[in-house]
Every structure is written in structure tokens, then in C-alpha cells.
Amino acid sequence: MKERTLSIIKPDAVKKNAIGDILRRFENAGLTIVAAKLTTLSKAQAQGFYAVHKERPFFDSLTTFMSSGPVLISVLEGEDAIQTNRRLMGATDPAKADAGTIRKDWATDVEKNAAHGSDGPDTAKWEIGYFFSEMDLPNRL
Ligand code: CMP
């Protein structure tokens, strides 16, 4: 099914100059980048985005990291975009990620893990809406 997902290339991967290589992987897998912005999140914006994790012990450190430098936020569209993106990223913990995945190639550790991708259709809708307005997006899937 054609669908959309939210991707964030995190500050660690941006610092490694990996934006181009990572976007190339999305495109090579048949995903289309339909909206994108390069920006630096405030701590409050990162806290809002990760609010679901606010009770976790890593919440403060994660949101400090996510607001530590530029990120590339994009909306990817294509058949099974959510699962395709998750397959390309690999496991959350790069130590457990398969060879050839984004996290295996660019992540530092389980927190500084190079990329974020929505984990399901409801999350994708909420996450896309957190960063993009209707005006930013082509109106038909
Ligand atoms: P992400 O896919 O963006 O979703 C939540 C993020 O929390 C995750 O990637 C990691 O950056 C971070 N995270 C998840 N588990 C841990 C952990 N055990 N310790 C530190 N950070 C974590």
C-alpha cells in the first residue's frame, strides 16, 4: 500500500556528512522524498516530538542530543514506506543492526543512532503533522 512515513537524519549522521548517502538509499529503495527541511530543533521541540518517551531514563539525554545540531527531516512516500524505511535503518541498537543498514554504517550507539523512522501508520501521521503542515505536502497519496 502506498503510504508516508517521517524520517529524521539525526545530528550524528549530519555531522558525518551522510545526508546525501542516506537519501540515496531511500531513493534507491523506491521511496520518494515529498517534503524535507534541514533545521536545528530546540530542546522543547525535541521533547515534544519524543513525549511518548518522557518517563524513560534516557529522555533528557536523547532530547539534548536531538537538539545538539542540524537534522534533516523528511516525508518519504511509497509502497510500504514505513516498513521499507525501518528495514533500511536497521535495529535501534546499531550493535544489533544488520550489515548494510543505515544504523550499522553511521550510528554511534543506541541513543546516537543516525536515523529515526515512524514505527506505524498512526505514529507516521502524528509525526508528519508535528513537523509539516498541509501546505508543505502534495495533497494526494
Ligand atoms: P528513535 O527511533 O528515534 O526512537 C526513540 C529513540 O530513543 C531511539 O531512536 C534512540 O535514539 C533512543 N533510545 C532508544 N533506546 C535507548 C536506550 N536504551 N538508551 C538511550 N537511547 C535510547
Question: Briefly, what is this?
Answer:
39% of the residues lie in helices and 20% in strands. It is α+β, with helices and mostly antiparallel strands and 141 residues long.
What distinguishing features does this structure have?
141 residues; alpha+beta; four-stranded antiparallel sheet; 39% helix; binds adenosine-3',5'-cyclic-monophosphate
Number of strands: 4
Ends: how far apart?
Answer: 10 Å
Which class do the helix and strand fractions yield? alpha+beta
Strand ordering within the main sheet: 2-3-1-4
Biggest sheet overview:
4 strands, antiparallel
Q: What multimeric state do the chains show?
A: single chain
What ranges have pLDDT less than 50 throughout 5 or more consecutive residues?
A: none
- Whole-angstrom Rg: 14 Å
The number of helical runs is: 7
Overview of this protein structure:
It is globular, with a radius of gyration of 14 Å. α3 (43-49) packs across α4 (59-66). The protein has a 4-stranded antiparallel β-sheet, sandwiched between helices. By secondary structure, the protein is α+β, with helices and mostly antiparallel strands. The mean pLDDT is 97. 39% of the residues lie in helices and 20% in strands. Adenosine-3',5'-cyclic-monophosphate is lined by residues 53, 58, 62, 92, 110-111, 113, 116.
Secondary structure elements and pairings:
Elements: E1 2-9, H1 11-15, H2 19-28, E2 32-39, H3 43-49, H4 59-66, E3 71-79, H5 81-89, H6 102-106, E4 115-117, H7 121-131
Antiparallel strand pairs: 1-3, 1-4, 2-3
Helix pairs in contact: 3-4
Adenosine-3',5'-cyclic-monophosphate (CMP) binds near residues 92 and 111.
